[in-house]
Every structure is written in C-alpha cells, then in structure tokens.
C-alpha cells in the first residue's frame, strides 16, 4: 500500500460515499492476496460490496497500485438494460442482464485471477482449513460443493476459497483468497435456514446458472487471509438426494488426472506444475464423498480432522 493511503473498513464508509467513489474515480478494495480497483455506477454493485466486503479494507486515493482495474457498467439498450464487465478496457464476456451486475463482478474477478495469476497453480476447487491442514474439494457444477463449503465454514472451518485453490508450485502450500461464497438455487434457502444471521448479497435471477446469491465469508476467514495452509485431504464431493453418506478411498492416479483436468493454468507451469500436483496427491488422503444430509457430512469431516 502506497504512502499517503488512508485505508478504512468498507463498513466504516457511508453508503452514499461508497456509491459516489464507485461512480467516480473508483474504490480500491483489498481482497487478499489482491488489491482490486473497482468502478461501477450500478446500485446493486455498491450494495453487494457494502454487504459482502464490510470487513475488508478500502481506500479512494487515486493513482495507487492495484492488481486489477475492473468495472461493471450499464450498456444502454432500448428493449432492456444490460451490463458489461471490463478489465483494463477489455471486455472478455458478452453482456449480461442488468440484474446480474454484482454476480458479474464476482465472476469477472474469478476470470482475472485464473487468466493472469500464474505464480500459483490454480485449480477449480473449494479449499478450507482446520488446525493448519487444508481440504481441497474439486467438483463440477451441481455437485453440492458450494453448499458443503458454506456449511463447513459455518461449522468453524476457515475458508480459503469457494472457487479456486491457489497452490504454490515451489512450496506446495495453499494461499487463501476468501471471497463471498456463490450459492445457487436451492442452496440459497438451505443456507438461509441453516444460518439466519448470515449476510447474503444481491440475488441474480434467471442466470445461466439459475438463481445466484453470494454469502459473506466468516470474520475468522477474512482476518486470517494471509495464513498459508498445508494440503492434507483431497475429497471429491457429490450430493445425491436421499442417499446414505459414503466415504471411499479414491485411486491416487485417478485423483491426479482429475486435478490436472481441473487446473486452469497447468500448461503454464509445464513439468514443474505436473510434479507439484503429483506431490500434493501423494501427500494427501484422497476420497470420494457421497452425501445427502449436511449434518452427516459435517460429522464425517470432524472425524477426518480429529
């Protein structure tokens, strides 16, 4: 952070002042391990940042360093308004519905990290930690990963990420990037019933993923965002309605191939990247988890981490 910068927590900034900064020169927002410069005149974006990043540091002094300069702006259209995501003037995505503006910010930031942050091997997986040991949860959409991830965080696990594992190819350690958890469809109501006091962001309806709503990260996860974690388990979760819980060992060779397929940038790291993934798989216990009841799943994780 440059000299002369006066950081404040987002929750300490008046809503009108936050909106004014986003509409004008922009808001610098610390999202460890990154700093993001955000601009948007769309009210739902300001509302989402105010709710979901309340405990994050921000500042408005211009000309400061940021890892990414992004904006979500309105695209005028006679029939219905749309929104555009931009990064350094690029528009990597087609416009989305205006009501998806906040979700577009989060999706766009995911793209920024996976496209440009090659000091890590990035994997499409949720990551949580307890007592210094981390569990990596790679899973395709619809597997119940985010629901399980949110429940584990509420149960005391520290969230490193809901969307991506940042694996250092030199040390084999995981870097945290705890941003809001993306909940979809039935998961939204499940988490609202499970944690009535949890802070939820704007709801985006009728997206390509259905209904989407983001959930604020736990205060502990935000406060400990700079702590590294050691991979200890790789668990492939799958929600199966009405099925009993099963936890079964998975062949490590198959797990390695799966991680390789779920890596966004393995091609950048070449042989070192493959060897890092192989080493992580070798050091971790690897399982398939099928579940239908979240409490049973949490009890299973408690037994593993005991």
Low-confidence stretches: none
- What is the total domain count? 2
- Mean pLDDT across residues: 95
Helical percent range?
25-40%
CATH hierarchy, class of the largest domain: Alpha Beta
The biggest beta sheet is recorded as:
8 strands, mixed
Give the termini distance in whole angstroms.
Answer: 39 Å
Q: Shape, please?
A: globular
State the secondary-structure class.
Answer: alpha+beta
CATH architecture of the largest domain: Alpha-Beta Complex
* DSSP E strands, number: 18
**Quaternary structure:** single chain
Output the CATH topology of the largest domain. Answer: Phosphoenolpyruvate Carboxykinase, domain 3
Query: Order of helices and strands, N to C?
Result: EHEEHEEEEHEEHEEEEHEEHEEHHEH
The count of helical stretches stands at 9
β-sheet strand percentage: 25-35%
| Backbone CA Rg | 19 Å
Short description:
This protein has 306 residues and is of the alpha+beta class. It is 32% helix and 32% strand.
Verbal overview:
The chain has 306 residues and is of the alpha+beta class. The chain folds into two domains: 8-116, no CATH class; 121-179 and 217-305, Alpha-Beta Complex (Phosphoenolpyruvate Carboxykinase, domain 3). The protein has nine helices and 18 strands. The chain has helices at residues 15-23, 43-52, 101-116, 145-154, 186-194, 219-223, 252-261, 266-283, 294-305; strands spanning 8-9, 27-31, 34-39, 57-59, 68-75, 82-87, 96-97, 121-130, 133-138, 158-161, 164-167, 174-175, 181-184, 200-207, 210-215, 230-239, 246-249, 285-291. Strands 8, 9, 10, 11, 12, 16, 17 and 18 form an eight-stranded mixed sheet that branches. The protein has a seven-stranded mixed sheet with strand order 1-4-2-3-5-6-7. It has a three-stranded antiparallel sheet with strand order 13-15-14, sandwiched between helices. The radius of gyration is 19 Å and the shape is globular. The N and C termini lie far apart (39 Å). 40% of the residues are buried. The model has no long low-confidence stretch (mean pLDDT 95).
């Amino acid at each position: 952070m440059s000299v002369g910068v006066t950081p404040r927590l987002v929750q300490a900034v008046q809503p009108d002042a936050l909106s004014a900064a986003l509409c004008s020169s922009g808001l610098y927002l610390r999202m460890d391990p990154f700093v993001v410069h955000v601009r948007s005149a769309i009210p739902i974006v300001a509302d989402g940042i105010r709710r979901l990043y309340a405990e994050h540091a921000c500042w408005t002094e211009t000309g400061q360093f940021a890892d990414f300069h992004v904006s979500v702006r309105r695209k005028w259209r006679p029939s219905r308004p749309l929104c555009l995501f931009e990064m350094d003037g690029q528009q990597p995505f087609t416009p989305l519905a205006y009501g998806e503006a906040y979700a577009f910010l989060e999706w766009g930031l995911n793209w920024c990290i996976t496209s440009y942050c090659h000091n890590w091997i990035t994997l499409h997986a949720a990551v949580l930690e307890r007592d210094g040991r981390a569990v990596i949860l790679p899973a395709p959409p619809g597997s119940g990963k985010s629901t399980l991830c949110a429940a584990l965080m509420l149960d005391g696990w520290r969230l490193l990420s809901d969307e991506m594992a940042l694996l250092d190819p030199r040390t084999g350690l995981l870097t945290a990037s705890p941003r809001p958890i993306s909940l979809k469809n039935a998961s939204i109501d499940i988490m609202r019933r499970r944690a009535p006091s949890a802070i939820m962001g704007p709801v985006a309806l009728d997206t390509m993923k259905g209904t989407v709503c983001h959930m604020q990260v736990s205060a502990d996860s935000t406060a400990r965002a700079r702590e590294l974690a050691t991979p200890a388990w790789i668990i492939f979760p799958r929600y199966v309605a009405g099925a009993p819980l099963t936890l079964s060992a998975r062949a490590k060779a198959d797990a390695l191939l799966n991680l390789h397929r779920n890596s966004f940038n393995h091609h950048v790291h070449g042989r070192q990247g493959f060897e890092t993934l192989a080493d992580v798989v070798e050091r971790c216990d690897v399982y398939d988890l099928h579940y239908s009841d979240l409490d049973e799943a949490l009890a299973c994780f408690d037994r593993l981490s005991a």
